[in-house]
Amino acid sequence: MTRFTYPRLQQLITAAKTDLPLGIVYPLSAPSLETVCELLAHQLCVPILLGPKQPLTKLAQEVGLDLQNICLIDTPDDPVVAAKIAVQMVKQGKLAALMKGSQHTEDLMGPVVERSGLRTERRTSHLFLFELANYPKLLGISDCVVNIAPNASQKQQILLSSLEALDRLGIHHAKVAIIAATEVVNAMMPATLDAKAIVEAHHLAPIFSGAVIEGPLGFDNALSALSAQTKGIQSIVAGEPDLLLVPDLQVGNILYKALIYMAGAECAGVILGAQVPIILTSRADSIFSRVASTALAMRLVIQQ
What we know:
This protein is an alpha/beta fold. It is built from eleven helices and eleven strands. The chain folds into two domains: about 1-120 and about 275-304, Rossmann fold; about 120-270, 3-Layer(aba) Sandwich (Isopropylmalate Dehydrogenase), CATH 3.40.718.
């Protein structure tokens, strides 16, 4: 059986060679430093490690990473302090993007989103790009990571950030499906009401010029034109969305993990809405996903 090799994500990686500085914050785990080896091999960026020198040096020796030509910013052995130093380096123009190392998400994102951090007027959100063997293009999904229960107005900001990112990647006139448990607007299901409100608002004043936004759509009729036709749904988006907007983090998180662990997908993901892209790795992420996420972040910086 031939193993699927994710050619679209591979192409993203191949096209993202840069010499941009990436701050890898508190990378005190083998996967974090193994990722650094791969980033160097693919020439995606100039990795700058921020963490306590002694344990980082010891761990680097264990994973076979030569630190001689890698910049290591020696910080106290405290992930929050390391994150605060990284934030200041971004503000000084010394880092083009950040990557989470082995610390808890809140240890990095706390300093990022505080008022003196890297906040912008845009709501912070997350975009995944998934590659599946049986789907003909990369599939974006927002927001599976950051926003727990966004309202319709917040979802519009999430959509805007995601559509801007897709446009920078060359995905113009994106087709968006706002998914819910049903394509029927139901007053007892807030996700359907939000979808209806967003679609109506987009018709009056486009969230992003050229984008086609439809919803609510069930997951089945969003991804299958045949399912939509069977249900009598007239849709431009059905069967070929570029982006799915999920109702909340619970749905998004379960969907993301189902695609990885049951559908054999791989993904690249990045935090949007801060002053720089942020790669929010998970301990369970593959090295390939970490590399693809870095390529995504670098492409977004280049195309700003």
